[in-house]
Specification:
Elements: H1 2-16, E1 27-34, E2 39-45, E3 48-52, E4 60-63, H2 66-76, E5 101-108, E6 111-114, E7 118-119, H3 128-140
Antiparallel strand pairs: 1-2, 1-5, 2-3, 3-4, 5-6, 5-7
Length: 142
């Protein structure tokens, strides 16, 4: 009987943090990377995906498909967004032009959470899946 109560309580706790309770219309995620020669800015919300690959170019804006948004939410779910400013970069190649400088910014319900700079291609492990998903989506939109 105790096992059943514990199991049911775990199910309810998990559902309390489910994607259904997230104010999805108030989420916006931006990833940018730049160096002397490269630049990329990706912005994803429930409504659209915006990609700018070079400074001065026209921004590509497409509607965000349901599967793309679902994959973003899945990658976002395990992240403690309030802790994003405290994440430490696993490498420092950006300090000597060994890698482009990257940043992740999540805006949720009017609050903005921005990471410290990290090497493009080597984000902190806590946000690595989200960054990977954003890059994949940005490369596959037409």
């Amino acid at each position: 009987m105790k096992f059943l109560i514990v199991l049911l309580s775990l199910l309810f706790v998990d559902n309390g943090c489910s994607q259904a309770n997230i104010k999805q219309d108030t989420i916006s995620i931006d990833y940018s990377t730049h160096s002397r020669r490269t630049f990329k800015h990706i912005s994803i919300s429930k409504k659209s995906i915006s990609v700018l690959n070079k400074r001065g170019e026209t921004r590509l804006i497409k509607p965000c498909s349901k599967p793309n948004w679902k994959s973003i939410l899945k990658a976002l779910k395990p992240i403690d967004i309030e802790n994003i400013p405290n994440l430490k970069a696993p490498s420092e190649n950006r300090f000597f032009d060994g890698a482009a400088i990257a940043n992740l910014k999540i805006t949720y319900d009017g609050k903005t959470y921005e990471s410290q700079s990290f090497d493009h291609g080597n984000p902190p492990k806590e946000i690595a899946e989200l960054v990977k998903e954003m890059l994949s989506i940005s490369e596959n939109i037409e």
